[in-house]
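[Automated response] Your request has been received and processed.

Submitted sequence:
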Amino acid sequence: MLGFLLLFHCFLWYNKSSEKGAENIWLVIQKIQKILAYKDLINQLNKTISTQTELIQSLQKTLEADRLEKENLRQQIEYLTKKLFGTSSEKRKDIDGQLNLFDEAEQEADPTWKQELPDDITVPEHKRKARRTHADLFKNVPLKCYNKVVTEVANKI
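Generated structure:
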């Protein structure tokens, strides 16, 4: 900016004696004012660009965090849905990369043990205890029978 002012003063000194020089000076002043206005506009636009860039970066971070949270919630919903509506037996499918703990005994067991067992197994019978009835409970309680008919009820019937 300092160099520009020195150049402008030199221009004024060179052109101050002529009439055309005064007109040229005003034209130069107007051009300089336009240049300064453009310079201010450029500075404002650069500030706006930097703030918008920061805003875009913060929004991208927020968007990435929301995407990760969405993915986490989707996986959680998938897991809970499988847990709620999936098979409820203890038989599970083999998962890739997981060792089978309980298959080892079955693989090493003797396969002929099934052939040694008979098809029909009989269990010896045993005597069952007689059921207890209410008659046994109330056998020592005295019983009184009343055969009275209520006249009001009998008349209505």
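Summary generated for your ticket: The radius of gyration is 52 Å. The longest helix spans residues 19-85.
If you did not submit this request, please reply to this message.
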